[in-house]
Design goal:
2 domains, 2 helices, 17 strands, mainly beta, Jelly Rolls, globular, eight-stranded antiparallel sheet
């Protein structure tokens, strides 16, 4: 039987399954979604192409988009607070990006993807950036293989950040495919926490970083999603979204192991390594 250790206690898989079912985890309300099936609305301005273009099958549906340094407002700035400036509410932004390790890119070809957040008055607060590069050299994670190296920071390449930065817990991705780049913005005890996750095409967690630290009173709603650096001719993207959690049913008092604000599902999803 598989068990999961939480603190000093072990939770058997059968018990965990019951806990997950009983917790009734929050559902997400979709505030913005773009799969490029009919247009590129909400983006400025990638090229919409049919699935199969350049040998790439869309992540879902019959179309995907080819982006350079394009950006999205996730529908509108401060979408998570109802479309106008206001106090912080938790939300998640997500986009699928196709990483092709066999594309023959030059060593140290980079892109960045940022999901930024505003102050409550709608002015810019901070970027939260995946720093990504293609490498085939003999240094860093996955040395000697063709791979993408990813880390996370508040700064952009090439001048202020680099994917291999050992202080940012870089990881290597060596398999071609669609990967979800996800930013989860939450209030953790009065401070902003941003869980930056990468998931593979089966929705398994590949890597995760935690950034943040701003006092929650200084934090508002969403800003842009932006490929602010891109040295590739284009990046295939699909299934961009902004979602916000709806109210969850509280955990039963008989499940003390999962107290403290984490449902079982949330615990499993938030397996982190701090950058």
């Amino acid at each position: 039987m598989i068990s999961l250790k939480i603190g000093s206690a072990w939770l058997a898989a059968s018990t965990l399954a019951i806990a997950v079912a009983a917790s009734a985890p929050a559902c997400a309300t979709t505030l913005y979604s773009q799969g490029f099936e009919t247009d590129t609305s909400g983006w400025n301005s990638p090229t919409r192409v049919a699935s199969g273009t350049d040998g790439i099958t869309a992540a879902s549906g019959g179309y995907y988009a080819q982006a350079t340094t394009d950006y999205t407002t996730w529908g509108t700035y401060n979408n998570s607070t109802g479309g106008s400036p206001g106090a912080f509410q938790p939300y998640t932004t997500s986009i699928k990006i196709y990483l092709d390790v066999g594309a023959g890119a030059a060593n140290d070809t980079r892109f960045d993807f940022s999901s930024a957040i505003s102050h409550p008055d709608g002015s810019f607060l901070r970027d939260f950036i995946f720093n990504v590069g293609f490498y085939n050299d003999g240094t860093g994670p996955g040395a000697g293989s063709d791979r993408f190296i990813v880390s996370a920071s508040n700064n952009s390449s090439p001048g202020s950040a680099y994917p291999k930065n050992p202080d940012k817990s870089p990881i290597a991705i060596e398999t071609t495919g669609w990967y979800t780049f996800e930013h989860v913005f939450i209030d953790n005890g009065g401070q902003l926490e941003v869980d930056m996750n990468i998931l593979d095409s089966s929705n398994a967690l590949v890597a995760s970083w935690i950034l943040g630290g701003d006092a929650i009173g200084e934090v508002g709603g969403n800003r842009y999603g932006w490929f602010d650096t891109n040295q590739f001719s284009y990046l295939a993207i699909d299934d961009a979204s902004l979602t916000a959690p709806t109210a969850a049913t509280p955990l039963p008092a008989t499940l003390p192991l999962l107290a403290g604000g984490l449902t079982a599902m949330g615990f499993l999803r938030r397996r982190k390594k701090t950058a």
